Amino acid sequence: MGKRGEDLGVVAGLVRASFLVNAVYAESAREYGLTVQQGQLLCVLMGRPYGMGDLGATLGLEKSSLTGLVDRAVRRGLVRREPDPDDRRAVQVVLTGEGRDLAEDFYAATCRRVDELAAGLSTPDRDRLAGLLGLIVSENEAPTVFLDTVQR
Amino acid sequence: MGKRGEDLGVVAGLVRASFLVNAVYAESAREYGLTVQQGQLLCVLMGRPYGMGDLGATLGLEKSSLTGLVDRAVRRGLVRREPDPDDRRAVQVVLTGEGRDLAEDFYAATCRRVDELAAGLSTPDRDRLAGLLGLIVSENEAPTVFLDTVQR
DNA sequence: TACCGGTAGTTCGTGCTAAGAACTATGTAT
DNA sequence: ATACATAGTTCTTAGCACGAACTACCGGTA
User: Fold this and answer.
1) What is d(CA B95, CA B97) in angstroms, rounded to the nearest whole number?
2) Smallest CA–CA separation between A151 and chain B, in Å?
3) What residues contact residue B12 under an 8 Å CB cut-off, 6+ apart?
4) Kindly report the CA angle at B27 between B67 and B135, in degrees rounded to 5?
5) CA gap B114, B111 in Å, rounded
6) Residues A80-125: pLDDT tens digits?
7) Euclidean distance between CA atoms A138 and A81, whole angstroms
8) Do B130 and A15 touch (CB under 8 A)?
9) Could you give the angle at the alpha carbon of A44 between the alpha carbons of A40 and A47, nearest 5°?
10) How many of the other CB atoms lie within 10 Å of CB of B118?
11) What pTM did the predictor assign?
């Protein structure tokens, strides 16, 4: 734990790196006229449609918070609520065409920016970092808030 | 870039790990009756007092956003605005005693929780991860939003 | 001294975020 | 048929973030 010079512990490293990622994410969202939360919503929905419940669990939001987020995304034409054929109470939130296009652009821009954060690392270091973060992500069952590769 | 199985690229790893850290940070803040932003404010001020300008630069906020954040922190008795002796326009934002106590508790709890995220890693892996994140943090000049070691 | 452009912060108005509690409508088990 | 659970929405309250306009003060210069 005792560190000298520029060295950081894992904890401070994780927190500060997150801060960087958040900033980059916010900048990217802003570039596309989105809020961070809207950007996250789009990225999640790029994978597949979600019901409100699953969506809340994935994003870590209460259902009451989600209604408004989805409302605003609907108002902007990014997302649609479709009735669930198997359950008349439930709803599937789906990207519209416009929403998908924007999501893909935003996703790509964000990837580029986050990638630049790691620009100073050598290729083997990048691989090592990816492996270690992958461990953390899977051990803690991080939800799929950001796809690894874009699949259409 | 082509990945198989559970492997993640650096980008997705960074984004999802950040999501985990954010969640943990939020949970920790909530435990202490703070918002995430208030928690961040306290953590920054643990290091030293800041003027509004520097504080905004460090937190990545516009000055107009900061006024309210500091106002609410003042209202909760966590923080004080002190006149800058050298510049009568300027203000120094300082932790109150209560604010410092809460900051330290919150900081410790957050450290514990973030540390648990990395609990699955071996000691050498933790060191490697710390080193790689440290590189990213210093290459991108991440502001001191989270101290490495607590200094009083 | 008087003026002037720049800087430090605040105020105000708008829209977004997040939560809990209360509610509607539908599903499910007994 | 009753009763409980689940999926979402509504409403209220508090906080967050921004830009534009504003006040007060600083520094330099005529």
Assistant:
1) 6
2) 12
3) A146, A147, A148
4) 80
5) 5
6) 999 999 999 999 999 999 999 999 999 999 999 999 999 999 999 9
7) 30
8) no
9) 150
10) 22
11) 0.93
